[in-house]
Amino acid sequence: xATIVDVARLAQVSAxxxxxxxxxxxxxxxxxRDRVVRAIEESNFTPDRxxxxxxxxxxxxxxxxxxxxxxYVFGRMIAEVEDGIRKAGMTLLLANxxxxxxxxxxxxxxxxxxxxxxxxxxxxADWSPSTFAAIDAAGCPRVLIDRMTDPSSDQAxxxxxxxxxxxxxxxxxxGHTDITLVGGxxxxxxxxxxxxxxxxxxxxxxxxxxxxxxxETPRGLRDGAYEIERFLNTGRRPTAVIAASGLLTLGVLxxxxxxxxxxxxxxxxxxxxGLMNAEFxxxxxxxxxHPVEFIGHEATALLLRRMSDPSxxxxxxxxxxxxxxxxxxGCPPGSALVTARRSPLAT
Length: 347
Description:
By secondary structure, this protein is an alpha/beta fold. The chain folds into 3 domains: 4-56, lambda repressor-like DNA-binding domains (434 Repressor (Amino-terminal Domain), Orthogonal Bundle), CATH 1.10.260.40; 61-157 and 292-319, 3-Layer(aba) Sandwich (Rossmann fold); 160-291 and 322-346, Response regulator (Rossmann fold, 3-Layer(aba) Sandwich), CATH 3.40.50.2300. Helices cover 42% and strands 17% of the residues. Strands 2-1-3-4-5-11-13 form a 7-stranded mixed beta sheet, with helices on both faces. A 6-stranded mixed beta sheet has the order 7-6-8-9-10-12, with helices on both faces. Helix 3 (30-43) packs antiparallel against helix 4 and helix 10 packs across helix 11 (246-259).
């Protein structure tokens, strides 16, 4: 198997020059670069795709950065993106930012070092403009997924605000006026939008501020169990709780079980996002679901469009959440519930 030293000997250059040509870490004269590329091809230097990418300027790889690869919603989204990228004849490289802007920056720069042909990213709460600037400076197409923080970018996500508003309105319609939202980290764009939708519904219904509570969790991927349990320990007992994500829903369920609180007998529960195998839960979960497969598909389509037409105007694709009516809200099985329209909105 040929090595970089073999390539250097064949091209009559130093090994460092070969490295600079492969990695783009230093300008190399065109004549020397061509000689190195020919040597890579002739020696069948592994991986062979290195030489091909040097000629075409493409690596046929796409980078995807999300905040938590272990979350059910992101897992389904990742699977959809991977399917679309594979069908386009490319390979998906996956990174987990852990909701850490420094980690996000490192992962993005690692993808740029590998010369990916495009990047799809769900930005962290405190995303750094310099990270996006680095992507743009490298001439790398990018698309935002799930967290639509920049209308000047291509982006695909859910109308979180209207989805939460509809979910809250359902609880109000069945008589709840003392509702607590387990909101999570309000610096996260999706959580902030869902919290705004919660307030929209309560204000429109004339429910006073003292009858609505938003519980925040500290920065990081926490499930809110400690926050809701501490809140319940104060003696304050709302009649209904909404969890702003699937992870937070698990935290509420955990806290209620530890305190012996029955759902929906003692406390009505609704969730934004679903849970894995939720169909086996008892009671069944009333939830606003955002179509993550659709979002993954559209984000991939937007990236492929941007790669083929860099001058195309930016496009935002926003899908409506769908309400799924279970019994966790206290309604009897089979009760009617109007669902939000599912067709996407695009601008």
